Structure formats: structure tokens, C-alpha cells
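Forwarding the complex inputs:
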Amino acid sequence: MFIVGFLARRLAQGAVIVFLVSFLIFTLLRVIPGDPVRLMAGGMAPDELIEQIAADMGLRDPIPVQFARYMGGVMRGDLGQSFVRPASGAAVGGAQFDDATRAERARVLSLIAETAPMTVQLALLSMVFALLIATPIGVAGGLYPGRWPDKLALYLGSLFVSLPNFWLGIVLVLLLSVNLRLLPAIGYQGFAWTILPAIVLAIEIAPFLIRTLTVSVAQIMRENFIAAATVRGLGRGRIVVAHALKNAAVPLLNLLGVQFSMLLGGVLVIEFIFDYPGLGLLTINAVLQRDFPLIQGIAIVTSAAFVLINIAVDLAATAIDPRLDY
Amino acid sequence: MTETLLDVRGLSVAARTAEGLRPILTDVSLDLAPRRILGVIGGGGSGKTTLARALVNWLPPALKPTAGEILYRGRDVLKMRPAEARRLRGREIAYVGGDPAGAMDPTMTVGAQLVEKLRAVEPGVSRAEARARAIALLGAVRIPAPELRFHEYPFQYSGGMMQRAMIVDALISNPAFLVADNITQPLDVTVGAQILKLMREVTERFDTAILFVSSSLPTVADVADEVVVLDKGAIVERQPPAALVAAPRHAYTRRLIEELPTLWTPGGGRAAKLHAPGVAPILSVRDVSKTYVAGARSGLGPKRLVQAVRNADFDVYEGENFGVVGESGCGKSSLMRLLTALERPDKGSILFEGKNVFSGKTGDLRALRRRMQLVLQDPYSSLPPQTSIGDIIAEPLVIHGLGNRAQRRVRALEMMGEVGLPKSLYDDLPNGLSAGQRQRVNVARAMILEPRLLLMDETLSALDQTEQSKLLDLFERLQAQHNFTYLFISHDIAMVRRVCARVAVMYLGEVVELANNDRLFFDPGHPYSRALLSAAPTLEERRYRSEDCLLEGEPPSPIDLPPGCAFATRCPSAHDRCRAENPRAYARGHGDRAACFLLEATAASTPARETHDA
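Prediction (whole assembly, two chains):
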């Protein structure tokens, strides 16, 4: 019963959030300088034609009218069509003027559906790597505060957090794929192409996980019930694994939710460096080409993903610690 | 000679400090036979918790045993290898501490943790068997509906219930020896009394010997077969409780006994002067109620209402000490928030010196606060740590814009003199002060505005007996000088007996009885007052036995109050009507009244509020 009420409330809140995000993005896109029709039709197209295309596309209507029309489509599951990308693939626009092919332009939803799984795969793999790096270091640091594992956790965290990701990406490409030929780097032809960018992202996230784990494990280990567990006759291993780590998992889980959302929303630099065909790369190109429908679509999908991830995290946290009351 | 389970010989424990080893326990020797309860009594810093922890080989890293041995069935606990010690600890030697609230993992059900513990110390036990044993024991310590409670989390247990669960946790492996370290200290007296009763049963039913450590002599005397007195880390005497109380041999024991407040000595309420007849009340509380909304779990379900204060109605007269007593959750503190106008009541009115506290503007409220001041419970968090003592005391003058800097200094120094603080402390920070000195700062800060009414919210509960006594003397002297009126809010019925002329007894938000001091202690009108008296820690011969006055069980939650009388669930005299209808207050003469149907026959004709309705 609790779960039904919880989901109903949180999904309703989430819908409001997604709506507000859409409105904000929609309005800002139309307020900032840069005319998408000029980019679509090409620099050489006559002004009257530009105005005509713009009017045909409804781009000269008042913003609320445009927004209402757009949201009407979104409600029916139609995120619109890209301004510039044809369904066939290659980007168009620039000086080329091919208004006749408008019908064949790619649907935003299918563009996102093609790229989103790539980003999800990259995000998940980086989380796995990050956890593999952070868990042993962070837990050990928390179990021995002030001793060498704690210091190791601190120094490694500081080191990782100060490595710029674009630099690390390039260095790893040079080292692992160019020199050692262990891993492929640029583009995407299979799962192996995900590994290198995931490592770079994992090293970027790991310091936060290490810090959170160290602090929360150390804090839990000072709790009364941990001390009491010893005198109740529980062994050290059981105390650490079943009680300390379980309790320390809640703050970690919250952090993982935030990090995962961020990975989904914008691994722009890394996807760009590795030419990885995910949402980040799609976003960069959409912004450069003033592809309004695509930018809006990405914004809506990622904000919806944020909302869902947060709900999942809160549910999981309540499952671990029933005192939490969301 | 009888068999000996535990034999401690010449045990000394010291703390590692920068200056070397500082002794905590010196040459402690004691022995314990199976199925006996040995009480250990001592004040703060006497080393009793260190002793308790040494016996289960669970000393904190900063402490180390320097001499002696602890023989459990002939084996030295201190010399065991860690693995061996762990096998003994939790299985044959169990420990229950004084903080039940934090003793279990909050993220696992109580039942799962009981099973986990049993299987950790006795690996052969199957899950189903462990579960059956846990449920049986939860029932044995009188946790209601043990099958359901088994699946609940620690935060769903009340303090008393959690302490019972911890006792189950200790007993589940059938230990031969149980260390009970201050286990009743955090509990309400009526709940603590039930835990004591349980301790006595445990020795018989489970063949367990108990070392019962406590700072309350009446508690130890109640439960133990023999008592050892610990003073400054050494045992100063050992006697059966009756002999100890009748003929204490050591000066420290004599002092402990002398300091104990008495409830039923005639004239024991020596400071309890009643107001002169015909005086107008300084504070009138008229039918005041306050309900808080607790967050509903999903936001969609029904709102949960906590009825913190229900129809409180009483008068406090000028120059009189008024007491509000009750156990945790009874609404004392909510009432205090209403009286100090920190919150508005939902219903009813509060009149101070004849004026409605909530009718006026903000300025009026400020003027009112000059004449009504509050002294809080916690001596530590109630003083700003970075402000000098003089500035803390003078601050109310600054707030109310009284005097210039030099005048304020003179007034603050005067106040420090009055409350017995050395004037040299004026520029010091409060961090070096003892708890008693801190409360003196609090009193001085409240007094500097020359208020008429001082609200004392558990002001003395954090202090030890000696310090309490001194402050009560100070309050008396100040009252004689300035004609203050005191309103004491407290759970300590012995303190109330000593200082309050009239007493309101609260239970679950209601004033169930209002009585003059002597009447309340010698002829209580409400069964709950009787239960409270029966559970009070005292060495005197009890006028009321807790077996007759209190049923097993805990107060119901203030969120789902049962219909009818709130005390009906624990009242031995409850009948069907009590469970359906809430009794009104029946007058008992001299302004006394109590809300119980048993009084209906004798009081049917007199109106309840004769004092102010007349």
C-alpha cells in the first residue's frame, strides 16, 4: 500500500518537474540568438524564403502557442522531427538547401532511441568500474581511520579528482590503444569500444565514492550498535559486512543516483573525445546545429531519467533503512 | 562452601593518559554464585561501568587491566585468547547496557538480529529453532504479540520494549552470567519497575546469575541479594541490601543514604507553602489543548495526529511552587512550550497576571517574557560556548534594552553573587564549568530581568543528588528574597514532593490529577498517581506496591489514543466504562481533583472547578 501511494506521488511530482524543464528549455532556446532556419536553409537563401519556412514551421508564432503545440505532440509520444538530420543518417544543413527532403528528416524519438542505449551502457560500465575501484579503498579507509588505508584513500582521491578527464582520456588512448594495442578507442563497433571511455569516467567518479564510503563507514563504525555487536558475540567479519556496510550503503546509494544521472545527461567531453555515439555526442551536434526539437527531446528524456533514477534510489534506500520516509 | 561462578581477585584497571597510567579501579575483589543477583552501586566516576565492562572483557582501548584476575568457572577472562573470549562472550557471559535505543542495527528487524546473534554464538542452531526461541523469549519478557513484534524494526519499539528485547538478546543463548549495566537508568520509573521485576524472574527461570550495576541505591536494594558499594574505584563495603540500608558501615554509603529524598516522611514537603487564601492566580491555564500533525507515511494516507496536550486546566498562585509531573511523552514539554508562548494552543487560553497571553501584539509578548522566564534542562546545550559568562547573564538586559554597559555589568555581577558563582568567572567562557555551575548561570540569566514566574523545565534532572540539593536550597532562598513563583516541570516525583505545594500529574497529554502535596502522596485520587508513587525509587517502606498498582505494558502511543481513559490499558481497577468513555475531573475538596470514574460516587455533587468557578 505504501509503495502505491509513494509511486503515485513521486511520479506526479516527476511529471511536474519534466514539464517545467521542457518549458524552460523551450523558451530559452527561442530567446537566445541564432536562427535555426538560417542554418537549415543555408546562408545563401533569400530572406523571404527564410521567413516563409519559419512561418510554415510555426517558428514565428508566440512562444506559448509553439510550446502548447509541442507539448501536445509530446503527450502523444511524438517528440517531433529534427530540423537538420535526415532519416538516412548524414547531417545536412550548412550551405545546402534542400527543403524538399523535409519529410524524410529523422524523428527525434528514434534518434534518441538509437543513441541512449549506448550512453546507458557506458554509464553502467563506468559505475561498475568506479565501484570496483572505490569500494575496497573507501571501506578500508573507513575501517582504519587515521591509519595508512585512510591516508591512501585520501591521497588516491585527491589524485583522481585532479586529473582532467580529457587529458586522462588522451593519455589512456595513447597508452592502451596506440602503444599497447590492448583496447580500441575511437568510434563504436562493439562492446570493447566502451571500456576505455568507461575507465576514464570511472576514475573521474571514484574520488567521490571513496570519500563518501570512507566517511560513512567510519561514522557507522563509531555507532553504539557496532560496539554492542562485539559484546553480543558477533564476529568482526559479520559486523563489518552485515551491519556496517549495509548502513553505509545508504549515502553511497544516494551518491550513485546523482552520479548516474549526471553520466546519462552529459558525458559530453568524453563522448566527443572518443567519438562515442551516445547522447552526449548527439547533444553537442544538436546544439551546434540549433536543432531545437532534438535539444528539447534530449532534455525531456534526460530529465525524465533523472526523475526515475531518483525514485528508484529512494525506494532502494527505504528498502535498506526502513526509517527513511520519503 | 557454595559453588562460585565468578571470582574477581584484586582487579585493578587504569587509563592510559599522557601523564601515564591513571587508576580507575583498585584492588576490586568480589564473587558471585549461580542464580544470585549482586548489586554494584556507586556514583558518577566510581568506576562501576569500567568494572561491568572488564567482566565481559570489553574494556575500551584506552583502559587496561594492571593487576588481578577475573575467574569465570576457574578460567581467567582477561588472559583468554581473543577467539576464546569471543566464544564465551555473548554465549555464557551476556551484557545488557544502559542505552537500549542505539544497541541494535536500525536497518534490520529485531527478530532477525536475535536470530543472527544466537546463530553467531551457537552455530549449530537452525534458523527455525532460533526463531522459535526468540519468539518464546520475547513473550517471556512480556512483549505483547511477540510473533508480530519479531518482524518489527528497533525504531518501532519504545525504550522500555527495546530494553526487554536487549534482555532477550542476552538471554537467548542461556548464559550463566549476565552483566546488567545501568539498565533502568534511561527508562521511565513505571517501566523501570517492570524491568526490575523481570530481572528477579530471570534468575529463577533461566538459572542466570546477575551482576546488577546502577547509580540508584533504591533500585539496587530492590533487586539484589547482596550489594557492593564502589567509591573512587574501590569496594568500600558489601552487605545484603536490608543490612546495608539499616547499618551502613562506610561514610560514603551513609552519605548516599542520607542524600536520598524521602516521599512519605510527614512534613517531607517542607518548602511546600500553599498560597494565601483569596490571592489571584498569577498563571491560569484554561482548557488548553495542542495537537501536532505527524507526517503521514505516504502523503496520501490519513494524517496522524499527536494529541500532545489535552484540556489542561489549572491555576498557579503567586509565591507558590507548582509542579507538573509525568513520564516521557506525557506532554510536559509541549505544555511548557504553550506556557512560554513559544507556540499557540489550538484551543483554550492562558492568562498571565490576568491578561490573555495570546491576545496582544508582539510587543506585549516581549513585555510578558520579561515577567516570565524559563530555565531549561540541558546545562550544556543551553549556554552559547563562545560567549563569556558575564555576557550570557547580561544578555536579557541587552535584548530588552535595559541599562548601559556599566550598569549591566553591575547587575550581572550581582546576579552571579546571588546564585553563588564566583565573580572572577565573569570573563570566562562557560566550557570550564560543572553542570551545577552551568545551571546557576542559567538561573542567573533568567533572574536578571526580575521575573515574577520562573518555569523550571527539568532544570535539575541532569544534576547529581548533592548538586540538586544545593540548587533547591538556592531556589528556596531566592524565593524568600524576591517572592518568585516557581513552576517545576519534572519526572522526578521525589523532587516534587520536596518543593511543590500543588502538583498536576500528567499522563498522555492530560492532567489526570491535581492535588496538594500531602494529599497526592498520602491519598492519591487517580490510579496513575498511585502507580507513579509505587514505582518511585525510594528506600522507605512503600505505601503502594507496584504489583498492585500497575499492569504489565507500556503507555499507548499518543498517535492512536484508545477511546476512553488513556490509563485504562495499564490500570488494575479499569472496568468496561473506562475503555469507552473518558472520565471528567471530579472534585475532591480543597481544589484537588482527579479524572477517574472511581471518584464519581463520592464527588458527584461538587463541581470540578470550585476554586475559580466560585
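Residues 43 and 255 of chain A are 47 Å apart (CA to CA).
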